[in-house]
Structure formats: structure tokens, C-alpha cells
Amino acid sequence: FIECGMTTMAQGTEVEATWVVPGDRVGAVEDMTAGQGTYVRNNVVHACLVGQVHLEPAADGALPTVSIKTKQQTSNVVPTVDAIVTCRVLTITPRMARVEILCVGSTPLSSTYKGIVRVQDIRLKELAKVKVHTSFRPGDIVLARVISLGDAKSYYLSTAEDDLGVVSSRSDAGEQLVPISWEMMKCPVTGATTPRKVARVVI
Question: For 85, left (φ over 0), alpha (ψ -120 to 50), or beta?
Fold first, then answer.
């Protein structure tokens, strides 16, 4: 559903920049050190920001450091029905999560659009047990599908598919959370777990 933003090493200089979105695979930990805008999962470096990949060479044979640099990109792409979008959660209520849409597919947008994930559109199963506050938190990066153009202010979005949901989130301690199941993430530092509607991201 989303292409991975891969990079190639340029001899003696920064890598050629490639656009990525949260959850994209950047490279392996044996080839690079995870820097700003990335996180490590299962020995693979992933992006946790929308932006361009850069590898900064290191001296004395050390591994280069990979980082994600956020920049504005002019794009005429707009969200359409059935498109997969990358969003950031702004606020939550018992009935919905309000988000801003950052990307359509793997294309970052030059301006953001507003979206809503209603409680009935979070999951396919056990709808009576679904709670917004145990699925998303403000600041989470989420993959969702556009299901309706909604009203003039917001698109209606769904995270009901297995591949959709939270792809990047931080703990109260500011650490990048690691998925441990389809409904739970864990802080690698404190060991504390917190519920989420986790996306089954292809690694």
C-alpha cells in the first residue's frame, strides 16, 4: 500500500535525497546509525517523519548517520476517495479523532487537509468495544483510507483494515514506541505498554 523510500550511497557525500513517509524502511542497522526522524524496529531503520532521507558520512570508518529532513514540496495531489493517506492526530473525543493529512500515498502535500476518523471506522471487529482514546493519541502518525469527502471542512477516513492504523507514536517519556501486537505498543526504555490501533506495516 505504500512504497518504501530507499536510498543509495553517494561516494564521499550525502546520499541522493528520497522522499519517505512514517513507517517507510530506510535501511539496516548494520549499514547506518539511526538519527533524527528515524527509529529502529527489528534491526531495520524506519522513517517517523515525512521528508527526505539523508546519510551523513562519518570519519574513521564509522557508520554514516541517517536522518529525515522535512521540507516543503510543491504538489498538486489532493486526497481522493479510496486513497491511502498519512495523517497526524490532532485531537481526540469519545466519538472521533481529528487529524491533519500530510501525504497521499507516498507523496507529501504542500498544504495539509483535515480529516476525521469516527469511532465506527477504527476497526472492523468488536465495534462495541472500540474506544478512540485506546486507539489513538494526539501526535500519533496514522495510515488511513479516505472513505468519503465528508463536508467542506474534513475528509472521512477509516483505519479498519489490518494494514492501517498507528505507524509512529511516542511515549509520555518521549521515546519512540515499539509495536508488540495489533493493539499494543511498548516503550523500549521504561517497558510501559499503551494501547493503540496498530498498523500491520510491511517490513
Answer: beta
End-to-end CA distance of the chain: 12
Buried b (16+ CB within 10 A) or exposed e, 177-195: bbbeeeeebbbeeeeeeee
| Residues pairing with 113 in the sheet | 101
Q: From CA 123, how far away is CA 113, in angstroms rounded?
A: 23
CB 134: neighbour CB atoms within 10 A?
15
**Which pLDDT tens digit goes with each residue over 48-104?**
777 788 888 877 778 888 888 776 554 678 889 999 998 999 999 999 999 999 888
For residues 166 and 55, give the distance between their C-alpha atoms in angstroms, rounded to a whole number: 26
